[in-house]
């Protein structure tokens, strides 16, 4: 866990003290620093206690420290985004989106799925709880679909509004932009190939005319010499 704050140039270096309701006050053991100033504190896993008030104090000694805030740490959890997403088309013309998430806190997670297609740029949003799959019905094979997923702790395990970052996008269908580029590249390649062949043919014709002209001139000169 990280607890961060802003440091203003010219101000004294801040120190952080903390305590749980059932424990005495302690100073941060591992500060996060930038340019020689404390801008945060890192708490290892063994220092984190959930479902108990966590009090944060800033500045000076433990006697002079000022209470900044009180938290329930389970409400401050920001999850990592889902990973290993896959898309599969079912026999019922549906797209099945699935992803992976750590087994820990699986029942405490909820997910927000957003999707759109190249014909409708507005995101369509769905929220589900304790599942790692989503089904989109009535898929149009002529459209290009994009999906993303994010997650957070659900209301049964904590009271938080902290969503994870969005996952990497996963897509299905033929990308019309890429298809257009492929066609453009194909036409360009065909044009350059035809132009190259035309240049070769013209070069051969020119060479043939030069050859015939020089050959006739040689025969004419040869006949003249024989008469002399």
> Sheet bearing the most strands, described?
4 strands, antiparallel
Low-pLDDT regions: 179-183, 220-228
Can you count the helices?
1
- Going by helix content, strand content and strand pairing, the class is alpha+beta
Shape: elongated
Strand content: 35-45%
The CATH H-level homologous superfamily of the largest domain: Immunoglobulins
Any idea of the CATH topology of the largest domain? Immunoglobulin-like
Strand order, biggest sheet? Answer: 3-2-6-7
The Rg value, from CA coordinates, equals 36 Å
H/E element sequence:
EEEEEEEEEEEEEEH
How many beta-strand runs?
14
- What's the rounded overall pLDDT mean? 82
Short note summarizing the structure:
23% of the residues lie in helices and 36% in strands.
Characterization of the model:
The protein has 228 residues and is an alpha+beta fold. The chain has three domains: 2-76, Immunoglobulins (Immunoglobulin-like), CATH 2.60.40.10; 83-174, Immunoglobulin-like (Sandwich); 176-228. Helices cover 23% and strands 36% of the residues. The chain has one helix and 14 strands. A hairpin with a 2-residue loop joins strand 10 (109-117) and strand 11. The protein is elongated. The N and C termini lie far apart (110 Å). Mean pLDDT is 82; it is low at 179-183 and 220-228.
Topology:
Blueprint: E1 2-4, E2 16-20, E3 26-27, E4 31-34, E5 37-42, E6 53-58, E7 66-72, E8 83-89, E9 95-100, E10 109-117, E11 120-129, E12 133-136, E13 145-153, E14 170-172, H1 176-227
Antiparallel strand pairs: 1-5, 2-3, 2-6, 4-5, 6-7, 8-9, 9-12, 10-11, 10-13, 13-14
